[in-house]
Amino acid sequence: MKAINEMKLTFESRSANEGFARVAVSAFVAQLDPTVEEISDIKTAVSEAVTNSIVHGYKDQIGRVYISARIYADSVVRLTIRDTGCGIEDVQKAVEPLYTTCETGERAGMGFAVMEAFTDKMRVRSTPGKGTTVYLEKRIRSKG
Question: Name one Pfam family in it (predicted).
């Protein structure tokens, strides 16, 4: 199925840009007239994906985060959040709740679980040394 609208966004992996990504994606999705809960779900999922790229993908360096959002005629939104950072060695392990590579104890290891809970579909692809891509899908229900 062909998208009826699409946008792409690229920004540096600075924590200040996480809020920008949330607002930009939610503004794009607003054309579907989502409920407050639906827009909140999307903002939360995008926030988690972008934070993962910044904190885990690039660690202590600055790279680029790429987001694409597509809207389809059946009110489905498909989001892709991608980085070219360090990648994930074991994706199956990484998506388990409470799993984290953070050694300082500052991260709970719930990012992927939150993304999965707030969207209808989530998929993660990663190659060590080349980066990670998170695919998210959310159907916007009619308010009527």
Answer: HATPase_c_2
Q: Does residue 93 surpass a pLDDT of 80?
A: no
Per the structure, the complete domain to which residue 43 belongs is given by: 5-139
User: Choosing from 107, 125, 137, 139, which is the catalytic residue?
Assistant: 107
Note if the pTM is more than 0.85: yes
5 noted as active-site residue: no
Q: Which one from 48, 70, 82, 116 is the annotated catalytic residue?
A: 48
Helices (H), 30-107: 36-52, 91-94
80 lies in some domain? yes
pLDDT at residue 113, rounded to an integer: 87
69: buried, middle or exposed (CB in 10 Å: 19+, 13-18, 0-12)?
buried
